[in-house]
């Protein structure tokens, strides 16, 4: 917080506090403006973009990646990475579908699928913490194990889901709002609170900022890192349940590439892969930005290859903004200049 903001807060007037909050969370929030810009681009690009049906479709599609991105963020903020999230989501769809096909109720099938996902996340955590395997290698191995296991469990063919309770819970509507949207918003709110207002969240930032210093300070580094991989597995499992309900099937072929989509969402959302920065809200907004751009390209009927190119360019631009070296310094300098200009405008408006 700048000295001017502190002075405004010390004035204790409601207007001053409102202005400080507006500047912090709206005026200088580049993610918010990028999201607004993508919506404006979509509105100009196609007359169908701003229809309520299309907006709900975008949010519903973004729900799966957004839930996974929150789990991925928890890992990334500690300086790790989870490449197994897509495979764990696919395994979850298969486990839930197989159990419901065998006659188990939707709640039992969903809970068992989440337990399987959590077990995969726990194994990742144990490999990283106890076996001292680098997160990239440990989760790369789990990516293969979970995908292969899901294929063996489904025995070669996709499994249809017909349970109305399951579909209604994870892909239905509450009033006019789709259930997936409610789920990803709840996940975002819960973990935004955890990261901002709990000891656990502050501990994760400390570990990502300087793991050795955190260890020397007496923080339970190993236990915390194990926890984030477990939570990432559970988030992937929850996303898998949403995906299974949306597509009414369980298949080992689902959620391919979601590990890269979740990493892209986290990076676009302002987190550094080195750890210690970012927020769950930023990860979700990053996922929304990617989803909106994908929707715009779908409205133009672009194939998947150009969309991959655009996504790659978006990741590079995001990294340039949050990087502290090389070209990133120039981009951050440009952003700093823009912020200074906005501050000048604010001072002029307040005088």
Q: Would you write up a description of this structure?
A:
The chain is an all-alpha fold and 351 residues long. It folds into 2 domains: 266 residues, ABC transporter involved in vitamin B12 uptake, BtuC (Orthogonal Bundle); 39 residues, no CATH class. 77% of the residues lie in helices and 2% in strands. The protein contains 16 helices and 4 strands. The strands form 2 sheets. It has a two-stranded antiparallel sheet with strand order 1-4. A two-stranded antiparallel ribbon has the order 2-3. A hairpin with a 2-residue loop joins strand 2 and strand 3. Helix 4 crosses helix 13, helix 4 packs across helix 14 and helix 9 crosses helix 10. The radius of gyration is 21 Å and the shape is globular. It starts with a helix and ends with a helix.
Given as residue ranges, the uncertain stretches (5+ residues, pLDDT < 50) are 324-335
SSE-based structural type: mainly alpha
With strands numbered from the N-terminus, the spatial order across the biggest sheet is: 1-4
Any idea how many domains?
A: 2
Q: In angstroms, what is the radius of gyration?
A: 21 Å
What is the CATH fold-level name of the largest domain?
Answer: ABC transporter involved in vitamin B12 uptake, BtuC
Order of helices and strands: HHHHHHHEHEEHHHHEHHHH
The second-level CATH architecture of the largest domain is Orthogonal Bundle
Count, helices: 16
What does the main sheet amount to? 2 strands, antiparallel
> What best-fitting shape do the alpha-carbon axes yield?
globular
CATH class descriptor of the largest domain: Mainly Alpha
CATH H-tier superfamily of the largest domain:
ABC transporter involved in vitamin B12 uptake, BtuC
State the helicity in percent bands: over 70%
Number of strands: 4
What value does the average pLDDT take? 84
Percent strand: under 5%
Distance, first to last CA: 20 Å
């Amino acid at each position: 917080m700048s000295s001017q903001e502190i002075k405004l807060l010390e004035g204790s007037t409601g207007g001053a506090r409102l202005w400080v909050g507006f500047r912090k969370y709206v005026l200088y929030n580049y993610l918010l403006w990028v999201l607004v810009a993508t919506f404006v681009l979509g509105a100009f690009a196609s007359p169908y973009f701003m229809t309520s049906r299309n907006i709900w479709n975008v949010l519903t599609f973004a729900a799966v990646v957004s839930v996974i991105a929150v789990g991925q963020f928890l890992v990334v903020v500690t300086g790790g990475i989870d490449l197994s999230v897509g495979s764990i989501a696919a395994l979850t769809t298969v486990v839930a579908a197989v159990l419901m096909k065998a006659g188990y109720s939707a709640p039992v099938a969903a809970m068992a699928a989440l337990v399987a996902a959590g077990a995969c996340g726990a194994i990742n955590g144990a490999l990283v913490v106890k076996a001292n395997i680098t997160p990239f290698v440990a989760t790369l191995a789990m990516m293969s194990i979970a995908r292969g296991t899901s294929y063996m469990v489904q025995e070669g063919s996709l499994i249809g889901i017909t349970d109305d309770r399951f579909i209604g819970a994870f892909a239905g509507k509450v009033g006019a709002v789709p259930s997936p949207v409610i789920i990803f918003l709840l996940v975002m709110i819960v973990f935004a609170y955890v990261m901002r207002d709990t000891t656990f969240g502050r501990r994760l930032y400390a570990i990502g900022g300087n793991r050795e210093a955190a260890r020397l300070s007496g923080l339970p580094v190993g236990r915390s890192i194990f926890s984030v991989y477990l939570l990432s597995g559970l988030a992937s499992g929850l996303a898998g349940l949403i995906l299974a309900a949306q597509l009414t099937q369980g298949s080992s072929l689902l959620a391919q590439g979601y590990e890269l989509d979740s990493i892209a969402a986290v990076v676009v959302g302002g987190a550094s892969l080195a750890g210690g920065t970012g927020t769950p809200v930023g990860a979700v907004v990053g996922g929304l930005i990617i989803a909106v751009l994908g929707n715009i390209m779908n409205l133009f009927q672009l194939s998947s290859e150009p969309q991959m190119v655009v996504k790659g360019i978006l990741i590079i631009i995001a990294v340039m903004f949050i990087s502290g070296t090389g070209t990133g310094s120039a981009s951050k300098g440009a952003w700093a200049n823009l912020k200074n200009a906005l501050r000048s405008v604010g001072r002029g408006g307040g005088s």
